[in-house]
Design goal:
The structure holds 2 protein chains of 2 kinds.
Chain A (H helix, E strand, L loop, with lengths): L1 E4 L2 E4 L5 H7 L7 E5 L2 E3 L14 E6 L6
Parallel strand pairs in A: 1-5
Antiparallel strand pairs in A: 1-2, 3-4, 3-5
Chain B lengths: L7 H6 L1 H4 L5 H10 L1 E5 L5 H11 L3 E5 L24 H12 L4 E5 L8 H6 L3 E4 L4 H14 L3 E7 L2 E7 L7 H4 L12 H4 L3 H20 L8 E6 L4 E6 L32
Parallel strand pairs in B: 1-2, 1-4, 2-3, 4-5
Antiparallel strand pairs in B: 5-6, 6-7, 7-8
Helix pairs in contact in B: 4-5, 4-10
Classes of the chains: A mainly beta, B alpha/beta.
Chain lengths: 66, 272
């Protein structure tokens, strides 16, 4: 299945957003996820089924400044 | 100080602004009446303070509780070697006034807290986020929401940076995207992971441009979109976001109804 992750088209295995996160070794606590332009709550990651052509944004925290 | 159009010194000083149709004498006057608070006189706060001062901002507020440390000088360009040990707000104020004595500088040698944030932010028109901890970034986000003040958020780490402008209640806020700070210690700070010094200049000057656009009411703000910069690849990327109806702060059923501070990041290395 091909999905767009952070603007890049990628071949992924996994049927839910949570499975894709796990496959990419990203802890759900470390990231905000936008799925087809809608923010997902953490408890929706496991229930959100990914289909061919979906767009996922993994938004990482960016904390520095000083 | 208010821009005085019949002052030759000021007309000359701001001539490259006044030439711009988007600014002109009227816009320069708006800049001269604006009050901008910079939270953190560090990496992002340095270029912001310099360019806001050069632009002729009426009043610049600076809040920072730290003193200048040798390790700051690689990126915090408003501080210089002889300033080591000096309070950052005093060091920054001296440079601002040397650059532009028309600017009024208000210094607050303190940490922004749940107790002082609303009062302090309430005294300014626009807030620039130049802090480097998540609890502080969320505190600023929340305080600007409660005080209804526009916020220009910025972040830098390693080779990456982000800018994001927030019009509280109108556009997406930090909590619309990230409900809460990451678990303490889970995300590195610049002190732990390092940062390319010039990145502070890139991000801090984009933040400053957003401030000027806010004051002038011109252009398209970085609202509802994150601007992420990858310096390693020299690539900017925009991520569209939207106000989240389930945001715990500005959503339809808010859980956060008063200002509070998240637990400090105990794992962060403190140099001062």
């Amino acid at each position: 299945m091909r999905v767009t992750i952070n603007g890049k088209s990628e071949e992924v295995s996994g049927s839910t957003v949570l499975e894709i996160l796990k496959a990419k070794d990203v802890s759900p606590q470390m990231v905000a996820v936008e799925f087809n332009s809608k923010m997902l709550e953490r408890d929706e990651l496991g229930s959100t089924v990914v289909k061919d052509g979906d767009a996922i944004e993994f938004l990482f925290y960016m904390g520095g400044g000083a | 100080m208010v821009f005085v159009p019949d002052s030759e010194e000021q007309v000359t000083r701001y001539s490259r602004h006044i030439l711009l149709p988007e600014v002109g004498g009227k816009g320069q006057q708006k800049i001269g009446q604006a009050r901008v608070l910079i939270v953190g006189a560090g990496g992002l706060g340095s270029p912001a303070a310099f360019y806001l001062a050069a632009a002729g901002i009426g009043t610049i507020g600076l809040i920072d509780s730290d003193a200048v440390d040798l390790s700051n000088l690689q990126r915090q360009i408003i501080h210089q070697t002889p300033d080591i040990g000096r309070p950052k707000v005093a060091s920054a104020k001296a440079k601002i006034l040397a650059l532009n004595p028309n600017v009024a500088v208000e210094t607050h040698a303190a940490r922004l807290t749940g107790e002082n944030a609303l009062d302090l932010i309430g005294r300014y028109d626009i807030v620039v986020d130049g802090v480097d901890t998540f609890p502080a970034k969320f505190l600023i986000n929340d305080a600007c929401f409660f005080a209804r003040k526009p916020l220009v958020h910025g972040g830098i780490l390693r080779f990456e940076g982000r800018v994001f402008t927030i019009l509280p209640g109108q556009s997406a806020c930090l909590r619309c995207i990230f409900r809460q700070p990451p678990p303490p210690g889970a995300v590195a700070t610049c002190q732990e992971a390092g940062v390319i010094g010039a990145l502070a200049g890139v991000i801090g000057t984009i933040q400053t441009t957003e401030v000027l656009k806010l004051i002038l009411g011109k252009g398209r703000l970085l609202t509802n979109r994150l601007l992420d910069y990858d310096a390693r690849e020299t690539r900017f990327r925009e991520i569209q976001v939207a106000k989240n109806p389930r945001c715990p702060l500005c959503g339809e059923r808010p859980e956060i109804t008063r200002l509070f501070e998240h637990e400090p990041e105990v794992c962060a290395v403190r140099t001062v």
